[in-house]
């Protein structure tokens, strides 16, 4: 039986604003992460104004717990998304050390996410999903309802100078 159901777009842009559907992002993350990171049960994404909040149901030392990470100052630079980790909270709103986040990020596939604990900067590598030569910056980010709106600054897209690998071996 065929279906006419179509997924909503994850990203919509117009002029200099990129809108990311947080519901679709949650669906995608919860489908992709559990097979790779068994300690994460469910990830939720939300926010208010310039703060983006990630909360996840985790297993801490054998006990289930919900951990919430608040991010601000989102930036996009050379196919990397960066953000400042404002706070990490655990059960009952107890403030947790940023090392908790680092512990769980060690379980994410190598190179995808990095955390500088000293500067509290979280980096996500998007090279797998964005074409080479893109150099765009985010001027501002804010959550409006279930959308993350990124106001883009001027940037550039350089042509790819290397030839793609051939589809057929010519040997």
Give your account of this protein's structure.
- With 171 residues, the chain is mainly beta.
- It has one domain (11-157).
- It is 13% helix and 46% strand.
- It contains two helices and twelve strands; from the N terminus they run E-E-H-E-E-E-E-H-E-E-E-E-E-E.
- The chain has helices at 22-36, 99-105; strands spanning 11-14, 17-21, 40-48, 51-60, 63-77, 80-89, 113-116, 121-125, 134-135, 138-144, 147-152, 156-157.
- The strands form three sheets. It has a six-stranded antiparallel β-sheet.
- Strand 5 and strand 6 (80-89) form a beta hairpin.
- The longest helix has 15 residues, at 22-36.
- The termini are far apart.
- The model has no long low-confidence stretch (mean pLDDT 80).
| CA-based shape | globular
What is the number of E strands?
12
Q: Report the order of strands and helices.
A: EEHEEEEHEEEEEE
Fraction in beta strands? over 45%
Q: With helices defined by DSSP (H or I, 4 residues minimum), what is the helix count?
A: 2
Unreliable runs: none
Helix content: 10-25%
Side by side, the strands of the main sheet go 3-4-5-6-8-7
Largest sheet composition = 6 strands, antiparallel
The radius of gyration over CA amounts to: 18 Å
Structural class: mainly beta
Mean pLDDT: 80
Distance between the termini: 43 Å
Total domain modules: 1
